[in-house]
Amino acid sequence: MTDKLRVALIGYGFMGAAHSQAWRTAPRVFDLPKDIEMAVIVGRNEEAVAAAAEKWGWQEAATDWRDVVARDDIDVVDIVTPGHSHDEIAIAALAAGKHVLCEKPLANSVADADRMAEAARASSAIAMLGFTYRRVPALTRARDLIAAGRIGEVRQVRAAYRQDWLVDPAAPLSWRLKKDEAGAGALGDIGGHAVDLVQFLTGQTVEKVAGTIETITKRRPIETERVGIAGRGGDEYGDVTVDDLAIFTGRLSGGALASFEATRFATGRKNQLSVEVSGSEGAIAFDLESLNELHVYDRTADDLDQGFTRVVVTEPGHPYLSGWWPAGHMLGYEHGFSHQVKDLVEAIASGDQPTPTFDEGAQVQRVLDAVETSSADDSRWVAV
Ligand SMILES: NC(=O)c1ccc[n+]([C@@H]2O[C@H](COP(=O)([O-])OP(=O)(O)OC[C@H]3O[C@@H](n4cnc5c(N)ncnc54)[C@H](O)[C@@H]3O)[C@@H](O)[C@H]2O)c1
To answer: Which listed site, 55, 60, 236, 339, has its alpha carbon 20 to 30 Å from 298?
Structure first.
C-alpha cells in the first residue's frame, strides 16, 4: 500500500461541503499516517460539480460515479448522496477494492443495509459509516466515562433530536420528504443519530421498541430550487411520503429504558440533539447546541451543594483535542467530520476496522424498521 490515499467524493450538497472541509483539514491538524489527495468529486450536473471542485479544492470533477469507482488511481470512496443510492455505490466500491466512508443512514431498508454489511464483511477494505456525532469530543468523552463505570449502572436514557424546518407549510417537498429517496423522515434521518448515539454511549443495543410516527403536513409544494436543507417550492403540490415526527420507547440490552424523540416540528429548535444518561452512581447530559460542554453528575460525592458539573471538553487530554487549539478555544459542528477522517485514515493504515461498522448501521436500520412496525400496529412493543 502506498503512503498516499486518493479520495473520490460522490455528492456535493450539504455533506459534500462538510466532508470536503474534513478531507482538507484533517491532514493539516493531525499527523496522519498517509497523505491525502482530494482527487475527484462526482455529481450529475457537470457545471455545478465543476464549480464545487473549484470551490472546495478537488483536483477533478466527474459526472458518473461508476467510472470513478472503477478507476485504479482511487483508494477511498466517500459517499454523501441520499440514502437510496448508498447500497449500489458502496457495494460497487467495495467490490472494486476501495475503502468506503458512507454517510448515514447506511441504506433505506434493512435488506439493502444487510447487503452492504455483507459486502463490507467480505471485503478486506475498510468500510465506515458516518454517524459523525460519535466524534464530537464531549460525546466521545461521555462514552469513555460511562464505559469506565463513572455513572454506575445505566438505568434510564433520554435522547431527543429536534429540528423545526418543516413547521413552515411552504417548506417544499425535497428528497428528504420522499420515501423512495430518503427511506424515512425524521425517524430515519435524525432518529437514526439518536439511536446510534444511545447505543454508542451505553455500549448496549436497543432490543425492542414501541412508538408512533406521524406526518403532520401531508402535502407540500414540489421543490423547484435547492437552497440549504429546505429549498423553495412552486405552485404544484405533491404528497409527503415519510414521517415528520417519531416518538418511541426502547428497551436496552442491559435492561434500561430509553425514550427517543425525532422531530422536524419542534418549533424554535434548530438542531438540538440532547441526551441524558442516568446511572446508579451518576449521570451525564449533553446538548449539541452547546457541543463543547458535557454535564457530569457524581452522586457518590459527599457534598450537600453538588449538582451537574459543566465540563468544557477542550483540554488537550480530551478526545481529539491534541491537534486543536489551547483549552477553552471552542470547536464547532465541522470538527467531528475531521475527526472522522482522522480515524478512517488511521484505520486504513493499520488495517483495523473502525466503528461505526456497516453491521452497526444495519442494526440501527433494524431498530428504525421496528419503530415503523410498532407505529402501524397501535404502538405495540416490537422486537428488533
Ligand atoms: N452525518 C450527518 O450528521 C449528516 C448530516 C446531513 C446529512 N447526512 C446524510 O448525508 C447524505 C447526503 O445528505 P445531504 O444533506 O448532503 O444532501 P444534499 O441534498 O445536500 O446533497 C446530496 C447530493 O447528492 C447528489 N446526488 C444525489 N443522487 C446522486 C447520484 N445518483 N449520483 C451522484 N450524486 C447524487 C446531489 O446532487 C447532491 O449533490 C444523506 O444520506 C444524509 O442522510 C448526514
So the answer is: 339
And the C-alpha cell for 209? 421498541
- Separation of 252 CA from ligand 1 center, angstroms? 31
How many CB atoms sit inside 10 A of residue 280's CB?
Answer: 13
Asked whether the beta carbons of 190 and 163 are under 8 A apart, the reply is yes
Q: Counting atoms of ligand 1 from 1, which one is nearest the CA of 226?
A: 19
> CA-CA distances (angstroms) from residue 115 to 80, 262, 345, 362?
19, 26, 24, 9
Q: Of all protein residues, whose CA lies closest to atom 28 belonging to ligand 1?
A: 81
Tell me which DSSP letter residue 162 carries.
E
Identify the domain containing residue 80 by its residue range.
Answer: 4-133
Closest protein CA for atom 6 of ligand 1 = 15
> Does residue 314 sit within a domain?
yes
Q: Check pLDDT > 80 for residue 228.
A: no
Rg (CA), the chain: 21
Q: Residue 81, CB half-sphere, CA atoms under 13 Å: how many? A: 23
Q: Determine the atom of ligand 1 nearest the C-alpha atom of 86.
A: 41
pLDDT on residue 1: 53
Domains held by the chain: number: 2
Nearest-5° angle of CA 336, CA 202, CA 304? 100
User: Among 17, 337, 371, 44, which Cα is nearest to 185's?
Assistant: 371
Look at residue 249 and tell me if it is in a domain: yes
pLDDT digits (tens, 9 = 90+) for 242-301: 999 999 999 999 999 999 999 999 999 999 999 999 999 999 999 999 999 999 999 998
Residue 32 confidence (pLDDT) above 70: yes
16 C-alpha to ligand 1 centroid (Å): 7
C-alpha 130, offset from chain centre: 5
pLDDT at 60: 98
pLDDT at 2 over 70: no
Q: State the cell numbers at 237.
A: 403540490
What would the grid cell of residue 57 be? 479544492
Task: Please give the distance, rounded to the nearest whole angstrom, from the Cα atom of residue 132 to the centre of ligand 1.
Answer: 14
Helices vs strands, H then E, count in the chain: 11, 17
Residues with CB under 6 A from ligand 1: 10-16, 42-44, 65, 80-83, 85, 103-104, 130, 132, 189
CA of 81 from ligand 1 middle (Å) equals 3
